[in-house]
Every structure is written in structure tokens, then in C-alpha cells.
Specification:
The complex is a heterodimer of chains A (about 350) and B (about 120). Chain A is mainly alpha-helical. Chain A contains 12 helices and 2 strands; from the N terminus they run H-H-H-H-H-H-H-E-E-H-H-H-H-H. In chain A, a hairpin with a 2-residue loop joins strand 1 and strand 2. The model of chain A has no long low-confidence stretch (mean pLDDT about 80). The chains are: A mainly alpha (about 350), B alpha+beta (about 120).
Chain lengths: ~350, ~120
């Protein structure tokens, strides 16, 4: 009976390799025994087989009983934070792409054949990217957690009540809106950067024609996309951890600082690459007659243009430092301010 | 509020889960294959479905309470399970505990039960 083999296959596929053969043999003999009980003589009918399989239940449930534990990609501990993050990320991506679509249509610049179709296509790919990154990050956290738990249970004997973590103070709580905005803005900015690279530049509207001189070299920038995705994934991870932990602590602060420094460094490495910038920027400016080759404005620009990149990198470093200082101060202030005992609810 | 019967059934299956282990161990002082235990237990009023019994037998074997061997002499190969020496000791201990448990539950239920 083919359906029996399919059932047994469906069960054993969900089990560890080394147990499969034995369980397969045992299940087969069980099913034959059960069939024999239903029919005293002759061949088992299709209905008999089906009723036996129905009695054994869905293959995934039977396999779960054999395994003795449930398998998750993202377990009950993390699922709420996962869904929250997924909502934020997907919303940000949709808003970002919609902004790109509107700018694109408004400028009727890209010359795409069908802007609506390409908008829908970018929605699908963008959402898929966001979904994949968030899921990968959470699956990794789940995996780490399981390993930690396994380690803890083997050390269970040494457990002491004094090991219990302190109940987090209400004032150490991170306002939820912060990580949410910190996920939202980078994604929107990144989506705009990725889809409208050639729009990042100087614009001029003259005689009904829009001309632009882009800042970046599109081809070189494209090579940096994977790096940008990594930066986005790291900064989202940073915020996800804040959403899950929810309370300030020295450990969380250290994690935040390390992650911030890594992402800033990656961005600065990219921006410091000389080939990233449009090599013909000054030439393009004059040829597109956005700016006359004479005049003080032009001279200041020419003399300052090479330094703009340095300024940008410096500005990013300063902003990062300010961010780190602000987070550290928020942590320090929360830690050192007296605990509002009166706020605690009475036990009875 | 949840359905009365559903609640009772849910709690009952929790209660039964542990008793099935004792029931199975009690029958395995001689070798038996999995499916032969189903009617044996059922006629004594302990219903167990094969989808629960088979994984349980494997688990008990893994814990060292049962030993198993394949019998391929008959028309159909079957895996026979038998209490291991360790399993016998465990069963003897469980048996004592179960007797005590029944006695104390009996005491509680005769003193306070029925007076709902």
C-alpha cells in the first residue's frame, strides 16, 4: 500500500537519521497489526488503511511524540517580539518604497515603462528582504537561547536563590517608541538610497527640464549594497534586542555601543572609498550648466568638494558619539536616581 | 467558561498520562510487542492509543527501563519489549508509591469527597 509508505515516510522524515530505520520497521509492523485486527481475511481496503492512519493521527504529531519535544524556528519566548519587529520593518519598507514611488512618479524621471508594476515588484522584493533578515536574526537568537538553556540545565544543581536576577526597575524601562523609530528611519533612508541613488545630487529646474548631477558613482555604490544590507541587519538586530530586553542595563548598553561602533565603522569605510563618489562631479556641474564656471560659489565648491567626504565621515562619527553618550547618560541617570518605591503596587 | 466535558477530559488525560507508564511496565515482565499491549490494557480498562504507546515504549527503552529485540521468525517482524533488571527495580518502587498514592487519595476523597 503506497499510502502506508507515504505515511511512514512523513513521520520518519521528521526524526533523527539514526532512529529512522528502526521506527520505520516498527511502524510498518504496527500498521499491519492494526489492519489485521480490522479485517479477518483477505485484502485490506483503502478505507481500512485510511481509518488506521487516521487513528494514528497526523504524521507531524506522531513524530513530535517520538522526538519528545517540539521544534521551533522561533519559539514562544520570542514570537511576540518577532511579530512586533516584523510589523515595524515591513511597514518601514512599504512606506520607504511608496515614498520612492511617489518621488519617481512626480519627477517622471526613471523612464520605467510601467512605474506601477515596478513599484509592486519592488514592494514584493523589499518585503521579502525585510522578512528574511528579521527571521534570520530571530532564528539565530532562538538557537542561542536553546544552547544557553541546554547549558543551564546541566549546571542545574548549582542553582542558588541568590542567582535570581533582580526585578527590573520601572525607571530602567526603555520607551518602546525609541527602538521602533530607530528601526523605521534607517530603513526608509536606506530604501531611498538604494532605489534612488542617482537622485541623490544637485537638482536644477530650468525651461521645463529637470537636470541633476548625482553625488555618487552608481556602479560603485551598487557593489556596496551587500555591505549596506549588513549594516541594516546589524542596526535592526541592535534594536530588536532592546525591544526584547526592554530594560536598561550595563550589559545592554555595552552591546548597544559595540553594535553602534561596528555599523558606524562599516558606513565610514564605505564613504571613505574615493571611487564611491562621482568622479566627474565638478565637470558635470559645469557641463549641465547647473553652475557657471565663474563666480565665487563655484570656486568655493571646487575647493571644498574633496573635503565634503571627510566632513561627512566626521559628522557621522560625531553623531554616533552623541548617540552613545545620550544612551549612556540615560542609563546612568536611570541607575542613579532613587527608586520610586511609592509606585509599587501593594501585594494584597 | 470552558465546556464542562472538555475541561474534564483535558484534566483526565493529564491524570492518565502517568498511569499509562505504570500500566505498561506492569505488563512487561514477559516479552511483548507493542500492539499486543493495546488489547491487554484495554480489557483491564486502561485505554491507550498506539500513537502514544509506541513513542512511550521507545522512551522507556532509552531510559534503560526496557530492553527490546526484533523477532523475525514470525510472518511479520515485530519488536518485542521486556523489563530490564533496572526496569524491574523501578517498577517495584513505583508500585509501592502507587499503592501509597491510591491509599492517600482514597482517604482524601472519603473524608471530603462527595460533599460537593
Amino acid at each position: 500500500m503506497e499510502v502506508i509508505d507515504r505515511y511512514i515516510y512523513a513521520v520518519t522524515q521528521r526524526l533523527p537519521e539514526q532512529q529512522r530505520e528502526d521506527i520505520q520497521r516498527e511502524l510498518l509492523s504496527l500498521i499491519e497489526d492494526m489492519l489485521e485486527e480490522r479485517i479477518s481475511t483477505g485484502q485490506a481496503s483503502k478505507e481500512d488503511v485510511e481509518s488506521v492512519l487516521l487513528e494514528l493521527g497526523p504524521p507531524n504529531q506522531l513524530a513530535a511524540k517520538y522526538r519528545g519535544y517540539e521544534r521551533y524556528l522561533i519559539g514562544p519566548m520570542l514570537i511576540d517580539a518577532y511579530l512586533t519587529t516584523l510589523k515595524i520593518v515591513l511597514t518601514s519598507i512599504v512606506i520607504g518604497l511608496t515614498a520612492v514611488f511617489m518621488i519617481d512618479t512626480f519627477l517622471s524621471h526613471s523612464g520605467k515603462l510601467d512605474p506601477v508594476t515596478s513599484y509592486l515588484a519592488s514592494l514584493v522584493t523589499g518585503a521579502a528582504q525585510g522578512f528574511a533578515w528579521v527571521t534570520v536574526v530571530f532564528a539565530w537568537m532562538e538557537y542561542r537561547q536553546r544552547i544557553n538553556n541546554a547549558g543551564n540545565s546541566s549546571r542545574n544543581k548549582a542553582w542558588k536563590p541568590s542567582d535570581l536576577p533582580l526585578i527590573p526597575d520601572a525607571k530602567m524601562k526603555i520607551k518602546r517608541i525609541r527602538p521602533i523609530l530607530s528601526i523605521f528611519f534607517p530603513i526608509v533612508v536606506m530604501v531611498i538610497c538604494l532605489y534612488l541613488t542617482d537622485l541623490l545630487g544637485i537638482w536644477r529646474y530650468r525651461d521645463g527640464v529637470l537636470t541633476s548631477v548625482p553625488f555618487l558613482d552608481n556602479d560603485v555604490f551598487r557593489r556596496y549594497w551587500p555591505l549596506l544590507w549588513i549594516v541594516a541587519a546589524l542596526s535592526i538586530t541592535k534594536q530588536i534586542v532592546r525591544i526584547i530586553v526592554r530594560y536598561r542595563s550595563s550589559k545592554l548598553l555595552a552591546f548597544y555601543i559595540v553594535m553602534t561602533m561596528i555599523t558606524t565603522m562599516l558606513v565610514c569605510i564605505m564613504l571613505a572609498d574615493k571611487t564611491l563618489w562621482n568622479p566627474h562631479f565638478i565637470q558635470d556641474l559645469t557641463t549641465s550648466s547647473l553652475m557657471s564656471a565663474e563666480g565665487n560659489n563655484f570656486k568655493t565648491l571646487v575647493s571644498n568638494w574633496p573635503r565634503v567626504k571627510e566632513w561627512l565621515v566626521n559628522a557621522i562619527v560625531v553623531l554616533t558619539l552623541l548617540d552613545i553618550i545620550r544612551e549612556s547618560r540615560a542609563w546612568y541617570r536611570a541607575k542613579s536616581s532613587p527608586s520610586p518605591i511609592t509606585k509599587q503596587k501593594p501585594l494584597v | 467558561m470552558a465546556d464542562l466535558n472538555e475541561t474534564i477530559l483535558g484534566l483526565l488525560s493529564e491524570l492518565r498520562r502517568g498511569t499509562i507508564v505504570i500500566g505498561v511496565l506492569s505488563q512487561l515482565s514477559e516479552p511483548r510487542y507493542g500492539y499486543s499491549l493495546v488489547p491487554l490494557l484495554e480489557e483491564k480498562g486502561v485505554a491507550v492509543d498506539p500513537g502514544t504507546l509506541y513513542p512511550l515504549l521507545r522512551r522507556l527503552e532509552k531510559q534503560g527501563l526496557l530492553e527490546s529485540r526484533w523477532d523475525t521468525n514470525e510472518s511479520r517482524p515485530r519488536k518485542y519489549y521486556l523489563l530490564s533488571p533496572f526496569g524491574k527495580e523501578v517498577y517495584a518502587g513505583l508500585y509501592q508509591e502507587w499503592r501509597k498514592l491510591v491509599a492517600s487519595m482514597e482517604g482524601i476523597l472519603t473524608d471530603f469527597g462527595g460533599g460537593v
